[in-house]
Design brief:
This protein has 358 residues and is an alpha/beta fold. 52% of the residues lie in helices and 10% in strands. It is built from 17 helices and six strands. Strands 1, 2, 3, 4, 5 and 6 form a six-stranded mixed β-sheet that branches. α8 (175-187) packs across α9 (218-227). The longest helix has 24 residues, at 121-144. The termini are far apart.
Length: 358
Amino acid sequence: MSNHQALVEALLMKSILGQELVDTKFHIFSGCSAHLRKVVRLQALSANDVVLTARSEFFAELLSRAGSPDATFVDFDGGSVFEDGMALDDYGYTSDSDLEDEEEVKASQMPASDLKGNESDDDDDDDEDLLVVADAMSEIDTLTIPPQAVTPITPIQHKPRVVDCRNILVPDTAFRTFKALLLYLYTDKIVFSPLKSQGLPRTNVEIPNSSTSWPCSPKSMYHLASKVRLDSLRDQAFYAIRSSLGAGNILQELSSSFTSKYPAILQMNVEVLLEHIASIPVIQNVPSLLKRIADSQLPHGADIVINLYQKFLLQYHPRALALANAPIESTPPPQGTTGVLQASKCIDKKKKKKKNPV
C-alpha cells in the first residue's frame, strides 16, 4: 500500500467514525493593495494533521506544539487585529505574484445594480406575465379548495457545531500559494502559472478546478517550499522557473528581488543569460542593467557580475579557472637549509659562552 493510499484510508476511517477532519486552520492574506501598501483579505484554509505530519517533517514539528520551526508561523486567536490588512513591509515577501491586485479585483466586479439596469424590457414583461398567472392561480385555489386545518410546522433546531482546531497565521505567503501546497500534500499534484514577466494571460490558468488542481506562481512556491523544507516541491518549482525564462524576460528576472534572495536562482538566471547573450533583447537591455548595478540600485548587483564572470571563465577558459581555484601549497625550505640553521645556532651558543665565562 502506498503512503498516499494509506493517508486516504486514514481520512476515510476518521469520517466513518464521525471524527473531526479539520484539525488546523491556516489564516493567509489573498490580496494586495498597492495604493494602501497593504496585504488584505485574510482567508482561512483547513487541513488535517494526519496528512500534514505524515507528509512533512516541518509540519510535524509545527503541530507538535513544542515550538514553531519558523518564526513566520504564529498562533492566531482569530481576532480582528488584521481585519484591515497588514503593512506590505511587514508581510515579508513584497514581490509575491500570487497576491491578487486589490484594485484590479474591485474594478472587475460589476455592481448588481448595473446588471439589473442592463436587463431588457422583454424580460420585465415576461416577469409581469408570470406574476399575473401566479395571482390568478392563487385566486382559483382560494375558491375551489376547502379550508383545512393547518398544522404548524416546528422548525428543526440545529445547534452550531463548535470545531476545536488550532489557528495559525502565515503572514508571508499568499492564499493561492498555500492552497496549492495543501493540495500537493494531499494529492502529490502541482500546477504552475506562467511568470508575469512572460506577458501571458493568467486568467485561464488561474480558474480553480476542484477535480484537478489550483495553479500558483513557481516563484511563490519556491519561496514557500524552501521554508517548509519540501525539497522535491522546491525542485519542481525551480525547473518550472527555469523553463519559463528566455531572451525576452531573463534580464527582468535576473534583476528581481526574488532572485537576490536565493543563490541557486541567481546562478540559474546567469546561465540562462549566457545562453541568450547574443540575442537582440539582451544586447539592447544589458547596458541598462549594468547602469543599475553601477548606481547601486540592485542589492545583488555585485553577485550578478561575479557569477557572470565565473560562468564566462568556466565556459571559455576552464583550465585557467581551475588553476586560479587550486589550493596554494606552502613551499618547503630548500634542502640543506635545516642543517645550516642548526650549525648557526651552535656557533651562536659558543659565542655566548666565551662572552660569559664561569
